[in-house]
UniProtKB/TrEMBL annotation:
It holds the Pfam family DUF3100. This is DUF3100 domain-containing protein. The chain crosses the membrane at residues 12-30, 36-59, 71-88, 108-130, 164-184, 196-221, 228-253. The keyword Membrane applies. Keywords: Membrane, Transmembrane, Transmembrane helix.
């Protein structure tokens, strides 16, 4: 016995471990923490995400005894498959709420421009505070989900500084984005500034896991508006996939390039 699990055995252990994590997280359930300005909602998906990270063989060495490298790769590939029923369920909520979605039409379409906020907020921090180089272009022009990575890969290549910046944000978003998207919506809703429909639209950023965490947090604080939250979030997510690439290609990325050339004229990239 080598102590290294085979592919089949590692896959079995992976499924058992995932099932155990799900059971534990569901038993813990939704927890609420009041912090004055609002309430932080802790969902089972957060516990599952945290436990999954902690039990990763790269972090918790004991896990390597029963989880093979092939099993770890399989778990990454299965995320897309596992999220598909969730996305399909979201699709079924759009039809019954189509009249309310049409009412929110202009706001739903124009909310895509809100993604330019990543440039306004993150670019000055990256360039002037963190002193980043051209990595700042890839890191700040969007929230760097899959369509945005594809654009950077096509224009610069992922081995470029811009590609490194985009991959860094993608990895960071994958690790902590779910936590942020689960905690922020209930807190922002507690401020009483934004309509719940606007917050629902903000959940659709082109990431299935972030969409799930965001809508879960909103539904937990406004359960009576569950259907409209899910419908607007789903419609927003679809529009982000449909229009986000073009906004990034024709607006966000050229704008970020222009800002970087203005901030660092000595490093202007020539075609």
């Amino acid at each position: 016995m080598t102590g290294k699990p085979g592919a089949a055995t590692g896959g079995l252990y992976l499924h058992i471990l995932v099932l155990a994590i799900v059971i534990v997280c569901e038993l813990i359930g939704i927890q609420r923490l009041s912090i004055g300005l609002g309430t932080v909602i802790f969902l089972p998906i957060l516990y599952a995400f945290a436990l999954g990270i902690l039990l990763n063989p790269a972090i918790f060495k004991a896990s390597a005894k029963f989880l093979s490298k092939d099993a770890v790769k399989l778990s990454g590939a299965m995320i897309t498959v596992a999220i598909m029923p969730f996305i399909a369920k979201f699709g079924t909520t759009v039809g019954p709420q189509i009249s309310k979605i049409i009412e929110a039409g202009p706001a739903l379409v124009l909310q895509e421009l809100g993604n330019l906020g990543t440039i306004l907020v993150a670019f000055p921090v990256a360039v002037f505070l963190l002193k980043m180089g051209r990595e700042a272009v890839g890191a700040t022009y969007s929230i760097d989900r899959e369509p945005n990575l594809a654009l950077i890969a096509d224009k610069y290549g992922l081995n470029s500084p811009e590609g490194a910046g985009a991959m860094g944000v993608y990895a960071t978003g994958t690790l902590i984005g779910t936590f942020v998207f689960a905690i922020m919506p209930p807190l922002v809703h507690g401020l009483g500034i934004f309509d719940v429909r606007a917050l629902a639209m903000s959940c659709g950023v082109g990431s299935g896991s972030m969409l799930a965490a965001c809508t879960g947090g909103l539904v937990a604080v406004v359960p009576d508006q569950k259907d409209i939250i899910l419908a607007l979030a789903a419609a927003s997510n679809i529009l982000t996939y449909a229009t986000g690439l073009y906004v990034g290609m024709f607006v966000a990325l050229p704008l970020t390039e222009w800002l970087y050339n203005k901030a660092r004229p000595s490093e202007r990239k020539t075609a």
